[in-house]
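Worked example 3 (structure in, sequence out).
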C-alpha cells in the first residue's frame, strides 16, 4: 500500500514537471507603419482582450497574443488618420505579419 502511494506521488510529480515546462505563449502580430513617424502606438482587440504596444521607428509587435481573431488599430499622429485592420488571425506558436501599413492623410 505504501509503495502504491509512493508510486502515485512520483507519477504526479513527473506529470506536474512536464506541464511546468510546457509553453502556452500564444502567437504574435507585427507590422510596419509608413511613414515611420506617423504613429505612436498600436492596439490589438479580440473580444474582451486588448493589447497595446508602442510604435518605434515605424515598427510594432504584439507578443504572446492568444489564438483568435483580432482587430488591429494603429493610432496615428496628425495629419494622418488612424488605420484599422480587421480579421487578423493569430495561431498559437505562429507569427502574423501585417506587412506595410500606409497611413492616409
Amino acid at each position: 500500500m505504501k509503495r502504491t502511494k509512493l508510486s502515485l506521488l512520483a507519477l504526479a510529480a513527473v506529470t506536474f514537471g512536464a506541464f511546468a515546462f510546457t509553453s502556452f505563449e500564444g502567437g504574435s502580430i507585427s507590422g510596419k507603419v509608413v511613414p515611420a513617424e506617423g504613429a505612436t502606438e498600436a492596439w490589438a482587440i479580440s473580444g474582451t482582450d486588448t493589447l497595446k504596444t508602442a510604435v518605434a521607428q515605424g515598427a510594432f509587435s504584439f507578443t504572446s497574443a492568444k489564438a483568435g481573431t483580432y482587430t488591429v488599430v494603429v493610432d496615428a499622429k496628425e495629419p494622418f488618420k488612424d488605420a484599422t485592420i480587421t480579421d487578423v488571425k493569430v495561431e498559437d506558436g505562429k507569427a502574423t505579419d501585417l506587412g506595410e501599413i500606409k497611413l492616409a492623410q
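Notes: The first strand starts at residue 27 and ends at 34. Confidence is low (pLDDT under 50) at residues 5-22.
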